[in-house]
Amino acid sequence: MHNVMVSVGVSRVGKTGVIFIELGAKVNSLYCCERVLGEGLLPDTKAKCRQYRWTLQQDGAPPHTAKKKRFGCTAAGWTR
User: Fold this and answer.
1) For residue 65, what pLDDT is reported?
2) What is the pLDDT of residue 20?
3) I need a labelling partner for 10 at 20 to 30 A (CA). Which of 3, 44, 51, 58 fits?
4) Which residues of 38-63 are buried (b: 16+ CB within 10 A; e: fewer)?
5) Strand pairing report for 19-20 and 6-7
6) Are 6 and 18 in contact (CB under 8 A)?
7) H or E element, residue 20
8) Alpha-carbon dihedral angle through residues 25, 5, 15, 39, given to the nearest 10 degrees
9) 23 vs 68: CA distance, rounded Å
10) How far from chain centre, in Å, is Cα 10?
11) Does residue 16 contact residue 38 with C-beta atoms inside 8 Å?
12) What string of pLDDT tens digits covers the 80 residues of the chain?
């Protein structure tokens, strides 16, 4: 039996595709910005919520609250 880590976005206009976290990946702020947000959740969310305003909300997991995340997301090319 294996553990599986996933991420998904859900809203009133629909849900994103499921993002599977690579087995053995070090999930830090840069990984979240590049892989989870940049390659998965944000493109799906922008496509589904074209004409709507939306807000990204995350839980208090360390990769979501790290001070480095602001810089990691900028390095990954994600801006508000």
Assistant:
1) 67
2) 93
3) 3
4) eebbbebbeeeeeeeeeeeeeeeeeb
5) antiparallel
6) yes
7) strand 19-20
8) 10
9) 23
10) 12
11) no
12) 778 888 888 888 889 999 999 988 888 878 888 888 888 888 898 898 888 888 877 777 776 666 655 555 655 555 55
Cα–Cα dist 5/7, whole Å: 7
Between CA 65 and CA 2 the distance in angstroms is 27
In the block, tokens 């090319």 appear at: 77
- Tokens 């990204």 correspond to 56
**What tokens appear for 21 in the block?**
């976290």
Residue-range domain boundaries for the chain: 6-75
